[in-house]
Design brief:
The complex is a heterotetramer.
Chain A: H1 4-10, H2 12-27, H3 33-57, H4 60-65, H5 73-92, H6 98-105, H7 118-136, H8 141-161, H9 168-197, H10 202-214, H11 220-234, H12 245-252, H13 255-280, H14 302-324, H15 329-350, H16 352-378, E1 380-382, E2 385-386, H17 396-399, H18 401-415, H19 421-435, H20 439-464, H21 470-473, E3 475-477, H22 482-496, H23 501-510, H24 516-521
Antiparallel strand pairs in A: 1-2, 1-3
Helix pairs in contact in A: 2-3, 2-7, 3-5, 3-7, 5-7, 5-13, 5-16, 5-22, 7-8, 7-13, 8-9, 8-13, 9-11, 9-12, 10-13, 11-13, 12-13, 12-15, 13-15, 13-16, 14-15, 14-20, 15-16, 15-19, 15-20, 16-18, 16-19, 16-22, 16-23, 18-20, 18-22
Chain B: H1 2-20, H2 31-54, H3 58-83, H4 87-117
Helix pairs in contact in B: 1-2, 2-3, 3-4
Chain C: E1 12-13, H1 22-39, H2 46-68, E2 73-84, E3 92-101, H3 103-126, H4 133-154, H5 158-176, H6 183-214, H7 219-228, H8 241-252, H9 261-264, H10 270-279, H11 284-291, H12 302-322, H13 327-348, H14 351-378, E4 388-389, H15 398-411, H16 418-431, H17 436-464, E5 469-470, H18 493-505, H19 517-532, H20 535-541, H21 548-554, H22 561-569, E6 583-584, E7 587-588, H23 589-614, H24 616-627, H25 634-640, H26 645-691, H27 699-723
Parallel strand pairs in C: 1-2
Antiparallel strand pairs in C: 2-3, 4-5, 6-7
Classes of the chains: A mainly alpha, B mainly alpha, C mainly alpha, D mainly alpha.
Chain lengths: 540, 131, 726, 543
């Protein structure tokens, strides 16, 4: 525990990225256009390098030694963040500073370091990703707080400066203020948890809560703190009741930033919630013991379960019904993102290995398919402005068939049509829900999926089927090809990855690998907060 | 009647106790002191919350979020005192740091927006949203 | 329920008789050949050649089968619909393609194939104006009909019977609607098929019912099972079986209440009317009841119902026939009426009478229709008996006139004609029954016989006697008869158009063309056949030999006629019902009937002669008198308008159903789909609108919403906490 | 197994090739791919050893797809699914051949989607894994939606969206139900699997209440697809708007997924639910028969008429299934295949005149026998097959479905839950009369009668097509006609092959009935005890 070396090694990818972020900030100020144009590629390379570092530095032994709550969570989440991060970099490539760079290229203006933001943008991009990665390694609440802020603060700036969206200022101000509000909420929740358990370290918190649970039940203050913390993080995952900002911010932010917002903060939020709730005590994997006898579910405390249940139901419902009314694609995707958070909360509620794996897998699916949609949107423009109205996409198939197909595929996958990736994510979530006896939730989710089909169908059919209008005739590709490539990669991934379900799922299963030391440290008298032991080995 | 006044009187008592104990910084805090601190922290938080909701000036709104942060920080310190644990105080230092960072960010943003619309009112920024 | 043992000859399985199946196969082959002719666009008479040859060959097959016949046989051919899901009696469904040949089968097949061949030959000339696709289509229909009819008659089980049953319906549909460009023909075809379908449903239910009770559908096994006593386990009483079967029979044989399709079916070419709608198909109902006769003992009133329906329909149709002007329609109603006699015969227990009457009727009615067809053929589609007169004086039309005379005489049951004997057998059985209602029906039958004689000779006197006068069909379409001349546009579209032009330009230039060899030959042969059909009866009546027809029926499942009636009516006191001991009007039964029947027949003929030969004006005067009087006016109106049965059906069934359908159609589109389905789809949208104000766009608004959400959760939690967890 | 995969993958590969080929080549590629698929399946059928035992043929489990959830790529056929797959594979090349001139724009895409549609239907029939089934079942929606939305009539958007949403909603319930059963299996065995046989074995052990809900939610999914009475409104619209070949596949193969789902999942998995709800489903089926028939009567759109007739016909099919006895089941399965043949052929026929006159309105168009005698002959044949004329294919299924319903009560003695009976059969039988009525009215309008042609199309209507059918079109219809006649004359092999499957589907029902009886007897005795107990104090009190 005392050795700092292994723990630092666990952070090697983040450290690498941190260095890269600094370099990126500097590179952005270069007078040479080639260097500035190299920025996205540099960022990608940094992410690739960190990806390469992960298997070397992140080993099970180290993770156990570091006494993480979910030692192997990062083994899946970090590559996911880095991988999708690469795609997100591609999505934003060419969008930042576009007008200025174009002017410079045409010789209308000269380079002015005060007017470029690309360096900062990519640095902040990396910071945010680093924050999300760091969350996986969190051992105490301070770490969580700092990492969450590291995720959040750069995104506020990215919204404001990321591109030429007319409404990005408004989006930034809303995002920032409401984000600060939510931060205060979970911070106060942290204080309460601290007050009740007397420690900021997750490990100790778990022990204390277990002791409480074994005694007269979990303390009211601790529960209130937990609930406040959960609600505070609901902001990150755009869940009810903290989701209200999402449509506005997603619509107002430049599209490539929206793509970022729809993924990285959300992953961060779910990681935090998983880690936090793991401290409260899921009983472990499933309700089935070896002999096929159903054992009673002793998961989260009832009030917490109830809160999460309501959050899940309201989030998916409000997200889906909200999306029905939208004529703006971005807004629609924002609501869709809300709805998907609702589905993901089912995983939180189910808990245990099944729940966490389902969340991990669903995050992967969600990341790829939603990025496909946003990337396709970024790849298109109309009269130099980004696409917002869905009707602008009408008849897209005739001029931009590939992008039209990518939008359609992503729509089909988001709605959960087999055999696309989203379908398997949903199946996995439902399986987890059944394992937690959450039949009602499954039914509600099923109904919600059907409702969501109403608008995803539009996303899929308007580009493919609808006749082009005068407005949509003017839609063309943006000068840069990177978003196009990102869209195609994501679209193909959505179609191809279902062929590799087993490796993917095994990767997701890694997240719930057993925690040798921590298990021993847990009070043997009380099984309820027993760490998440694997059921992967039990599975056929 | 008595029951109703009990919290009030205890609060008064604890305030007086706190005043009395000003010099005894290193002695263990009493229950009442902790309750008072927590109450104040909650009060700070709620004031910040209410201010955030009712004020339109972006600077004021930001200050309100700071208030909420400090409420949380105060609670954190109190708890640290209660548990005789330093980590809470460490947390507070980080909270202050982050708050400072947020302040810098907020001011930058506010300035940026002020340049565009020549006003500090948050109300003008409501183009987005459902019609 | 029933456990009476009726004497039914046991069938033996005789796979070596499979060649009889050729009788089924040959028409099918000819149907295929006709299709090929149509596809190859052959314009010759090949389809007719194929069909006539095939039918003649199948007639020969049947003759051979008759010669080889020694007792009922079951001839398996191939498995059609058979499967088993257990070993039990009720755990299998067996409907092979197999033949059941007993004397009843042969009796029927002989005249079906024989008449089929003759009429196909006749049609080869009659239809020659259609040469080409239409010609092939016609003979395709005839071939399919013969196949289906053979399957109906020779099938070993009720599913094969059902196959034939619907198959003849198809043939009938195709042939009635032969002239498909004439809407009335199309409508008539549709009507025929649909009304038959109503009966078919009854038959199908009857079949299911038999299966549910006896576990088999093969006649041979069925009869055994019946004698062993069935078991009923559905919530319908087993005694419903006869009524269900009856419904099928009434549909196919055009009995009340399902008779209205048959007159309309006269839209078809006349050979079709002769073959299908007079001689063979419409007797399928008689065959069905005769075949399954023992099952009609399952309910005491079943056969009585048959008798009543038969007697009633006979009278009803006769009254309508009296007031029709279209020759074919008169004959159509006479067919319904004669079929009524057959059912009356079945009902009162003389299966022999019914079947023998079927035989004689097949010949004389086919003859009558073919003469009508010849007239139509020659006079450009003219069939209005007011517009044709004195045909026997026109050269070349003698044969037609006199063969028609023979047909009319037979239809009128003139004493000592074959039809007289067959009708006699039916009426005798009725009049000598111990049941008062059967006796009543017998008298009703006699009265109907008089009417029959009247309307039959009304046609003959009008058309063949009197002054020579004819108009081609050109004027027919503004004739005042309600159904005056639907055949006006006949199966001879082109010729007809030509004739109508000619009719206007120079009315007297119209020359009827007399029948050529095929039609003449067939008429002659049929006339001989008509006469010859009486031989079984003559043999019995005059030579005191055996009655062939009676022997044939007695060897089959329909044998136990009287016994079953007796059993069914539980009339122990009617043990003594033998005709020999019964009397009619105090005379010995046979003699009495001879006297009464001859009186009725002659009376009818004489009245017809007065009104339609000697003093045609008085017929009109009679009509005027009847019409001029409010008390009697209804009679001619109802008779001419066919007792408004069509209109009643329209008002009772078709119109309400149609209105209902429109309502459903509207409801489906606007309520079920529009309100319910779309409404449900709008719920989420409405929900979205409901939550819309929450996303107003103001920063503070969001803050309030968020804080309110958090506060609500906390408040709820506090409440729960105060109540104590769980 | 490899042959099965070949038959499924051939169209997919074909679709990929179509995507990269030229428009002109695409239809030949599509035709070859479907023919290849048919050939593979036919070869498989020849080798198929399980024609007479009702078992799945390749019984070994396929490669794992998703180990964690036990999803495997297991394919295999029993007789019923093989017949339905053969039907699909048989219709595919005909449909493609039939669309040669009908589709003039976005040709490549059309054939590509069409091939994917065929592949996914084949996959659904071949799947032995419930999730794999669901993948095929659900994916059909995508190509079908696009086929309707792109190549459909004037209301194609609404039609495609309605179809998609409606069936999607239904099948989500089905998916939940399947996962539920898999979960119960997981509870009892500790392993996740979606193997249909295993799931069935698990499901039948569930308590009655669970089976009730299981059955209900499976039914919701399949009933939409069938479609059963109140859930049918998407179908006429979809059919009306779909391109001809789309209609053919929709009616012939896609709707069969619903009835097949009942055969494969709902009925064998939840006998208690089936027993409990059979009357409800039967009543709905009967309503469907009468209701849809009556609507057909007043339809003037030929395609909508046939669409509603599908509702009626499949109502009869469902009634046969829910008679819950071997006769009815046998008839229902037979009817599935034959409804596919005759209705598909009718849609093709309608498509052929639609291509020439650009209208399906029977008020405007009529008497085509004069102009198109060959077409008219086919039309009449298929109409009568659809009416259920004995000797043609439709009859066998109809007769057995009705017969099964009629004697269902009787089968109570042999152990099957006999609830339906003659009364049901009579009402359903009215459908036979109505069927004759509306189909003959259709015939009377468009085939017979004086020739009526829409005027505005007189000029270009026959630009690319001859007045009557051309050789290609005859080539399309002839195999169908032969099949209709052949199956009507020689249904025996097929009936024999279906029989063990039908028995197997219903295998649980006698036991279930037995259980019910025991429960009732127990309840009765308890009630008796209770009354006795109640009476004792009363008597005591009286004394």
């Amino acid at each position: 525990m005392d050795a700092i070396g292994p723990r630092l090694m666990l952070l090697a990818p983040e450290i690498l990225l941190f260095g890269a972020a600094v370099v990126a900030a500097v590179l952005g100020l270069s007078r040479r256009h080639a260097v500035r144009a190299f920025l996205p590629i540099f960022t990608c390379l940094a992410l690739i390098a960190s990806l390469a570092l992960m298997p070397i530095t992140w080993t099970e032994a180290r993770a156990n030694e570091a006494q993480l709550v979910l030692p192997m969570l990062g083994a899946f989440i970090k590559p996911l963040l880095a991988g999708v991060g690469i795609l997100l970099v591609l999505v934003s490539a060419g969008s930042v500073d576009r007008g200025f760079e174009a002017a410079v290229a045409r010789g209308r203006t000269t380079f002015d370091p005060q007017r470029v933001v690309a360096g900062e943008f990519h640095a902040f991009f990396l910071f945010s990703v680093i924050g999300a990665m760091l969350l996986c390694s969190a051992t105490d609440l301070i770490w969580i707080f700092l990492a969450v802020e590291l995720v959040s603060l750069p995104t506020y700036i990215m919204v404001a400066v990321g591109g030429a969206s007319r409404r990005s200022g408004e989006a930034a101000i809303k995002y920032f203020f409401l984000g600060a509000l939510s931060t205060a909420v979970f911070l106060y929740g942290f204080a309460m948890i601290y007050g009740s358990t007397g420690s900021l370290e997750l490990d100790n918190i778990r022990t204390a809560l277990a002791a409480q649970a074994a005694g007269s039940g979990i303390d009211g203050v601790a529960l209130a703190g937990l609930i406040l913390a959960v609600l505070g993080f609901c902001f990150k995952i755009t869940a009810v009741p903290m989701h209200f900002y999402a449509p506005d911010v997603y619509e107002g932010a430049p599209t490539h930033v929206t793509a970022f917002l729809a993924f990285v903060p959300k992953v961060a939020g779910f990681v935090v919630l998983v880690v936090l709730l793991a401290c409260v005590g899921w009983t472990g994997h499933s309700l089935v013991d070896g002999d096929g006898v159903r054992v009673p579910y002793a998961g989260l405390p009832t009030p917490l379960t109830a809160v999460l249940w309501m959050v899940a139901v309201l989030t998916m419902t409000l997200g889906n019904v909200g999306a029905l009314l939208q004529s703006s694609v971005k807004r629609m995707l924002a609501y869709s993102s809300i709805a998907h958070s609702g589905y993901l909360v089912i995983g939180l509620l189910s808990g245990g290995a099944a729940g966490i794996e389902a969340i991990c897998f669903y995050l992967l699916a969600y990341g790829i398919m939603t990025t496909a949609a946003f990337a396709a949107l970024v790849a298109l423009e109309r009269r130099g402005e980004e696409i917002n109205e869905i009707n602008d996409l009408a008849g897209l198939r005739q001029k931009q068939p590939v992008m039209a197909w990518m939008l359609a595929i992503s729509g089909a996958s988001l709605v959960g049509l087999p055999p696309f990736l989203g379908f398997f994510g949903k199946v996995y979530l439902f399986v987890a829900a059944f394992e937690a006896d959450q039949f009602a939730l499954v039914v509600i989710a099923v109904l919600n999926s059907a409702v969501s089909a109403l608008y995803y169908l539009r996303l899929a059919t308007v580009p493919l089927v609808a006749p082009p209008s005068a407005r949509s005739e003017e839609v063309e590709l943006v000068p840069t090809r990177w978003p196009w490539i990102a869209a195609v990669v994501c679209g193909i991934g959505t179609v191809i990855l279902p062929g590799f379900l087993n490796p993917l799922v095994r990767a997701a299963e890694v997240t719930t690998k057993p925690v040798a030391d921590v298990t021993a440290a847990a009070p043997s008298a009380d099984p309820s907060p027993a760490p998440l032991s694997s059921n992967a080995s039990e599975r056929p | 009647m008595n029951a109703f006044l009990a919290p009030v009187s205890s609060a008064i008592a604890s305030v007086s106790t706190a005043l009395e104990g000003m010099g005894q910084a290193f002695s263990a805090a009493s229950e009442a002191q902790i309750a008072l601190s927590l109450a104040i922290s909650a009060l700070l938080f709620v004031i910040g919350l209410v201010g955030f909701m009712v004020r339109r000036n972006m600077i004021i709104m930001f200050l309100c979020t700071e208030l909420m942060f400090q409420g949380a920080a105060l609670a954190m310190i109190t708890v640290a005192r209660m548990h005789m644990d330093v980590s809470g105080q460490v947390f507070v230092i980080f909270i202050l740091t982050v708050a400072a960072a947020e302040a810098a960010l907020a001011l930058g943003l506010v300035v940026l927006l002020h340049r565009r619309r020549e006003t500090l009112s948050a109300e003008v920024w409501s183009d987005l949203g459902e019609a | 329920m029933s456990s009476a043992n009726f004497p039914i000859p046991q069938a033996v399985v005789a796979p070596e008789m499979a060649w009889v199946g050729l009788a089924l196969l040959l028409p099918l082959v000819s149907a295929v050949l006709c299709t090929i002719c149509a596809a190859a666009r052959l314009r010759g008479k090949w389809p007719a050649v194929f069909t006539v040859l095939a039918l003649a060959a199948s007639f020969v097959v049947v003759l051979r089968a008759y010669n080889a016949y020694s007792g009922p046989v079951q001839v398996p051919i191939f498995e059609w619909m058979s499967f088993a899901w257990g070993d039990g009696r009720f755990q299998q469904f067996t409907a092979p393609c197999a033949l059941y040949i007993d004397s009843l089968t042969l009796f029927w097949m002989l005249f079906v194939t024989g008449l089929g061949t003759l009429i196909a030959l006749y049609a080869s000339e009659y239809m020659e104006t259609e040469k080409g696709a239409g010609y092939a289509r016609f003979f395709f229909g005839i071939s399919i009909f013969l196949f289906a009819m053979s399957s109906l008659v020779m099938g070993d089980n009720l599913v094969m019977l059902y196959l034939g049953w619907e198959g003849v319906g198809l043939a009938s549909y195709l042939l009635i609607g032969f002239d498909y460009q004439r809407p009335s023909a199309v409508a008539a075809a549709k009507k025929a098929f649909i009304m038959n379908r109503i009966g078919d449903l009854g038959l199908a239910l009857g079949i299911f019912m038999l299966w549910a009770n006896y576990g088999t559908l093969q006649y041979s096994q069925l009869f055994q099972a019946m004698n062993a006593g069935g078991q009923t386990a559905v919530d319908w009483d087993v005694s419903l079986i006869p009524f269900l079967l009856m419904l099928g029979a009434f549909g196919k044989s055009a009995q009340f209440p399902l008779f209205t399709w048959l007159p309309d079916a006269m839209e078809g070419p006349t050979p079709v009317s002769a073959l299908i709608h007079a001689a063979t198909m419409v007797t399928a109902g008689v065959y069905l009841i005769a075949r399954l006769y023992p099952f009609f003992a399952l309910h005491p009133d079943a056969l009585a119902t048959v008798a009543w329906i038969g007697g009633g329909t006979a009278l009803l149709a006769a009254t309508i026939g009296m007031a029709q002007y279209d020759i074919k329609r008169v004959f159509a109603y006479s067919t319904i009426s004669q079929l009524g006699y057959m059912f009356l015969g079945l009902g009162v227990g003389t299966t022999y009478g019914a079947c023998y009457h079927t035989l004689t009727h097949a010949f004389f009615k086919a003859l009558l229709f073919l003469t009508a067809g010849a007239i139509m053929h020659g006079f450009a589609g003219q069939l209005d008996l007011r517009k044709l007169s004195g045909l026997r004086h026109i050269p070349g039309w003698r044969l037609v006139s006199w063969t028609m005379f023979i047909g009319c005489l037979w239809l009128a049951a003139f004493p000592y004609t074959a039809a007289f004997f067959s009708k006699d057998a039916i009426l005798l059985q009725a009049l000598t029954s111990a049941r008062w209602d059967f006796v009543f029906l017998g008298w009703l039958g006699l009265f109907t016989a008089a009417l029959t004689a009247y309307y039959t000779f009304r046609v003959w006197f009008r058309v063949c006697c009197g002054p020579v006068h004819f108009e081609p069909a050109a004027d027919a379409h503004h004739g005042d008869a309600p159904h005056g001349a639907h055949d006006a546009h006949g199966p001879h579209g082109h010729e007809n158009a030509h004739a109508s032009k000619a009719g206007h330009a120079a009315e007297h230039a119209f020359h009827p063309h007399a029948p050529k060899w095929a039609i003449s030959t067939v008429l002659a042969v049929l006339a001989i056949g008509t006469v010859a059909a009486g031989f079984p009866a003559y043999n019995e009546a005059f030579a005191h030999g055996t009655n062939w027809a009676q022997k044939m029926i007695a060897g089959s499942s329909a044998a136990a006629g009287a016994q079953i009636v007796e059993h069914a009516s539980h009339a122990a006191e009617t043990a003594d019902i033998h005709a020999a001991h019964a009397t009619v009007l105090g005379m010995e039964a046979h003699t009495g009937l001879l006297v009464v029947g001859a009186t009725a027949s002659l009376g009818g003929i004489l009245i017809a002669a007065y009104l339609h030969l000697f003093s045609r004006a008085s017929a009109d005067a009679l009509r005027r008198v009847l019409m001029g009087n409010w008390f009697t006016r209804w009679l001619p109106i109802c008779m001419e308008r066919k007792w408004f049965v069509d209109e009643i059906y329209h008002g009772l069934f078709r119109l309400p159903l149609w209105i209902g359908s429109q309502v459903l159609h509207f409801g489906d589109k606007h309520f079920l789909d529009g309100v319910l389905v779309d409404g449900i789809a709008r719920i989420p949208i409405a929900a979205g609108k409901l939550f819309r104000p929450l996303y107003g766009g103001a920063l503070q608004g969001y803050a309030v919403s968020m804080v309110a959400g958090v506060a609500l959760v906390l408040a709820w939690m506090t409440w729960v906490w105060l109540r104590g967890f769980e | 197994m490899s042959l099965i995969w070949t038959s499924i993958l051939m169209p997919i590969i074909g679709a990929a090739l179509v995507a990269v080929s030229s428009s002109k080549l695409s239809r030949s590629i599509a035709l070859l791919a479907t023919l290849g698929s048919l050939a593979a399946l036919t070869l498989f059928a020849f080798e198929f050893p399980a024609w007479n035992n009702g078992q799945y043929h390749p019984l070994e489990a396929g490669p794992a797809w998703l180990d964690a959830a036990g999803i495997r790529l297991s394919v295999g056929f029993d007789t019923v699914s093989l017949l339905l797959a053969l039907l699909t594979a048989f219709l595919m090349p005909l449909c493609i051949l039939g669309s040669y001139t009908a589709v003039t724009e976005r040709v490549k895409e059309y054939y590509g989607w069409f091939l994917l549609l065929g592949a996914s239907i084949l996959l659904a029939f071949a799947a032995r894994d419930a999730i794999l089934f669901y993948v095929g079942y659900e994916f059909t929606l995508v190509p079908m939606t696009i086929l309707i939305a792109v190549y459909g009539g004037t209301e194609r958007r609404v039609a495609s969206i309605k179809m998609f949403l409606y069936t999607f909603l239904g099948s989500m319930f089905m998916l939940a139900a399947i996962i539920y059963v898999a979960w119960e299996n997981r509870v009892s065995t500790g392993a996740w699997t979606f193997d249909i046989d295993t799931l069935t074995a698990t499901a039948i052990r569930l308590p009655a209440s669970a089976q009730y809900w299981l059955f209900a939610s499976l039914m919701v999914g399949f009933a939409v697809k069938v479609p059963l009475f109140p859930l049918h409104t998407w179908l006429p619209l979809a059919h009306d708007q779909a391109p001809t070949a789309g209609s053919v596949i929709l009616a012939s193969a896609m709707l069969k997924l619903g009835t097949y789902g009942n055969y494969r999942f709902a009925l064998p998995m939840a006998p208690a639910g089936g027993t409990e709800l059979m009357v409800v489903v039967a009543v709905l089926s009967i309503i469907a028969i009468i209701y849809a028939s009556l609507i057909c009567w007043v339809q003037t759109d030929a395609k909508k008429l046939i669409a509603y007739s599908s509702v009626a016909h499949l109502g009869l099919c469902m009634l046969g299934l829910f008679a819950l006895n071997p006769v009815g089941a046998e008839g229902a399965v037979f009817y599935m295949v034959n409804h596919g043949l005759s209705t598909g052929a009718l849609f093709l026929c309608i498509g052929m005149f639609y291509e020439r006159y650009h209208t399906k309105d029977t008020d405007v168009l009529g008497g085509l026998a004069k102009k198109m005698p060959v077409w008219a002959s086919f039309m009449v044949l298929f109409t009568f097959a659809s009416i259920g004329l004995p000797g043609l294919n439709g009859f066998i299924g109809e007769f057995l479905c009705l017969g099964g319903t009629f004697i269902a009560e009787h089968d109570g003695q042999s152990g099957y839950p006999g609830v339906l009976g003659p009364r049901f059969a009579v009402v359903a039988g009215l459908g036979l009369i109505f069927a004759a009525m509306y189909l003959l009215i259709l015939l009377g309008k468009i085939v017979w009668g004086p020739l009526r042609e829409p005027h505005h199309d007189a000029g270009h209507a026959h630009a690319c097509l001859p007045t009557d059918l051309n050789a290609r079109e005859i080539l399309v219809l002839t195999p169908l006609a032969v099949a209709c006649i052949w199956l009507g004359v020689q249904p025996q092999p097929m009936l024999k092959a279906i029989e063990p499957c039908a028995t197997r589907m219903l295998a649980q029902y006698p036991d279930e009935v037995q259980r019910l009886k025991e429960r009732e007897a127990q309840m009765a005795s308890e009630a008796l005890d209770a009354t006795n107990l109640a009476q004792v104090p009363q008597q005591g009190g009286a004394r």
